[in-house]
Amino acid sequence: MKAALYTEFQGPISIDNVPDPTPVEGGVVLKVEATGLCRSDWHGWVGHDTDIELPHVPGHELAGTIVELGKGISKFKIGDRVTVPFVSGCGKCEQCNSGNHQVCDTQFQPGFTHWGSFAEYVGIRYADTNLVLLPTEISFETAASLGCRFITSFRAVAHQGQVKPEQWVAVHGCGGVGLSAIMIANALGAKVIAIDIDYDKLEFTKTIGAHYTVNAITVDAVETVREITKGGAHVSVDALGSKITCFNSIANLRKRGKHIQVGLMAGDDYLPEIPMHLVVANELEIIGSHGMQAHCYPAMMDMIKTGLLEPEKLIGDLITLEEGAALLPKMNEFHGIGVKVINRF
Fold first, then answer.
1. How far from 35 is each of 16, 31, 140, CA to CA, in Å?
2. DSSP secondary-structure letter at 101?
3. Which of 81, 96, 223, 334 could bond 134 through an S-S bridge, CB–CB 3.0 to 4.6 Å?
4. For residue 23, what is the DSSP state?
5. Where are the domains of the chain?
6. What does the pLDDT read at residue 266?
């Protein structure tokens, strides 16, 4: 099969012919119909993820068609249209038994623990536990855009943040994660503030649910959020993952507010300064959010089918595998609006 491959961290990504995957017991092989280009793949390429073994095929936001079944598959069949969380649980460990497959002790992550979806085919493990059937109303491209950013944002806002109507939600960073969080928070009835340094991105957020925008280059983001909200956000999301956005997201909270860390903070350059005096004095909560379990997809899918959520609006460019391989090393430059999705292999 054709795949995007790198043999050294921060090295060139080439398009090569590599062996087709074969299904393991409890696994399947998918024909990749669409896969998203995500900054997490950039972190992997840089060398921030110790799970990656070289040579490596990246890609973890995917949707496809089942073309081969391994032994023991009972819930799916060849020809099914499916997607999968980027963190897939084994279904047997302590975490999975408590329903928390997103922090499975022996998790499978396409594009990290194993070869991923920047290829014509991809092998998926623990399939019965983690595959999600796609409703006919949802395209492969839209499903791929859900795979990491949207589901992580959904769990961050709805489950970890427990956002309620009329609460103030601040979202720091308006890339794919941030745009998703803005749309979801608005759909849940919150008053949403989008914070970024890019004027075009901030203007776009107004079309998907942001009630206020803050350009962190022209004003003090923390003070502006506190002024708008008359005391601070109830829930604040660091959707980027940087020293500045993490600090600001905590510092702009009202008393007993919740900071949700979604953006990756991998590597020494990303270690933030935490305003711990505010955490203690104001009884703030600092909460991580890492993917979403397959069994939690139905509520989100229902909101998509009814039009309450429109993730297709967050898709920017539809690109080729070759274009994706060329763009992946540049993912830290934050150019463009919306999610880039590979749908031509």
1. 18, 11, 8
2. G
3. 81
4. P
5. 2-149+292-344, 151-288
6. 67
